[in-house]
């Protein structure tokens, strides 16, 4: 199932230069530390969550509120953050050196990573240039899209049959239906993982309830059915109505103890109460590619690119494995377990193009 190894090479001096940064070290420490554990704890909005603390969290992560900070303080914070999470483009050679002699595997979020964040989630269309960049990467490395969207919907957006797709935050995984490097790859096409299948009836029931309550009473709110999870988008909701929206969603979920509520970028996520997330999806896909915990794990260099809190679960897995590179897409400083950063989807496209152009003659 694995693709031919592609080796990324560069001058050894680059690694020393990367390590000389005041806060930055690569490869990163094997554990994510207290900050990663704290970050993971902030995502779940269970019964103990209160509306006030949730609203404070949303305001703190809002770009509009970030821009209201004093300019000097914001600049200092940004500079310090960039030292700890430097640009993956600026430090590309260090990343390439760390991947030398290993099989690269690429994992990409969709919204905010391959496409811009837009007011209407149905209009999050990736550009043709981005699609060609992803196509080029997939021709050389195993490549997967890992999204909170439904798998069928994100496939419609991307439109590339040679990729692995993990929708519903990794609860709906299927292998490529076409592989240019392995046209007869029945094994890859047979990859399937749906750990939350038993929740489909209750997800449909809650979807109908949220549409009838939230969408009809909160202007701008949109409920999206992602098959194994639900998204309640409030990007177009007035900030004064965020609290009411949150309470309505929690009111519906109180009768469904098997579901939990989490928070993303201007979205609330309703998910089954199972131990599965984008990190588990990453581990499953690495195992499906032949790089699980059976002794070959050290032969792979996973690169995971994402912009959302839900992507932190994948960044944590890379930290725990002590390998690969997590890349956060963000224009603003935020707590993250990622090692590198990129500012917006345009930089993601440029990063993918650089991956394609690397020398892959040594295995």
Q: What's the domain count? A: 2
CATH level 3 topology of the largest domain: Rossmann fold
Under the CATH scheme, which class of the largest domain? Alpha Beta
Strand content: 5-15%
CATH superfamily of the largest domain: HAD superfamily/HAD-like
- Can you give the mean pLDDT? 83
Placed side by side, the strands forming the largest sheet appear as 5-4-3-2-1-10-11-12
- What overall geometry do the principal axes of the alpha carbons give? globular
Q: Given the structure, what is the number of helices?
A: 14
Q: Work out the number of β strands.
A: 12
Secondary structure category = alpha/beta
Report on the biggest sheet.
8 strands, mixed
**Regions with pLDDT < 50 over 5+ consecutive residues?**
1-22
Q: State the end-to-end distance.
A: 17 Å
